Amino acid sequence: MKLAKRMDIIPFQRIRKIVEEATRREKQGENIIHLEIGRPDFDTPSHIKEAAIKAISQGKVHYTSNYGITELRNEIAAKFKQDNGLVYDSSDEVIVTVGATEGIFLSMMALLDPGDEVLIPNPSFPCYAQCANMIEAVPVLVPLKQENDFEPVMEDFTSRITSKTKMLIINTPHNPTGAVYSEETLKALAQMAIKNNLFVLSDEIYEKNIYDGYRHFSIASLPGMQERTITVNGFSKSHCMTGWRLGYLASSRELIAGLIRIHQYATVCATSFAQYGAVAALSGSQKAVEEMGKEFNRRRIMMVDRLVKMPGISVFKPKGAFYIFINVEKLGMSSQKLCTYLLDEASIAVVPWGDNHIRLSYANSYENLEKAMDNMAAALKKLT
Ligand SMILES: Cc1ncc(COP(=O)(O)O)c(C=O)c1O
Q: What whole-number distance in Å separates Cα of residue 262 and Cα of residue 196?
């Protein structure tokens, strides 16, 4: 028995390996502080849970429209208008998906042929390259550099465009660096996309996790962009709903007509009662979202303040998301080895990213993060 050939290039997620190793150690009685996790550590706000529970009680447990329930699509269209200045017809330009992850998959599956090239600013959320691999498209990684605040530099993109280039991925606020692309950068990327007739997949899942007065800007709102852009978003990060598996996307009627056919066969629809919870998430109080934002910011400031004083590492001060991206090259140890060292010496789980970087998440309590910083400072001191 043999797996399909495409599986040769699809690895097991690196982050999962770390989680499994940390869990193994915890089972043996070790106390590990988790900084590898890409999910908010807060509970889903109660009014959202209550709406989903009510939906179950009322028997709303059946398949929904493939596009998602009308109430939710209307709320999503209203959200796009209010937050992003984007007008979509909720009847056929919005799809409720099983997480933003499904939105990424649908977009690539419906728009790319085998051999088509996808420009992916890198470092990047691993799902983009692996989704491209799954459908036998070609991920083309375009380097983002710390000296440019991890914002795209146009020549790095234009020099990689070929006759096969068909899609550009944008993710702002950005995982793993915490960069937030400026409006100027997005305008330049939009011009490039129009000139080269590219689809744009704009992953805006960290839209609500933004600090220091930076503003989120949707590339689809620029002239000529809405018809070529699929804007992907979701409830995982904004409303602490990772386990609900609920996201959404919007685009032109023409592109949605393709994406919905993949969605019909891949998942049919998102979970019915979860969708009712999501209606409450968008229509109800946003106080919990604001409170969470304040707490993330408090942690971010403390962590950056501590990390910049540690030896041998270079820290990028994040403007968004809930990660801190650190260059560890000067320590003379691969990022993978360093992660094992930090697990051994500091009892903290962090993620290696490429050969020279690690990513720390601050989705953990302030107290745990303070302890993690104490442990990490002591462990790095031993190395230098
Ligand atoms: C950039 C980015 N996009 C999408 C996702 C996945 O979101 P969802 O839980 O909605 O599938 C993540 C999760 O970590 C992410 O970091």
A: 26
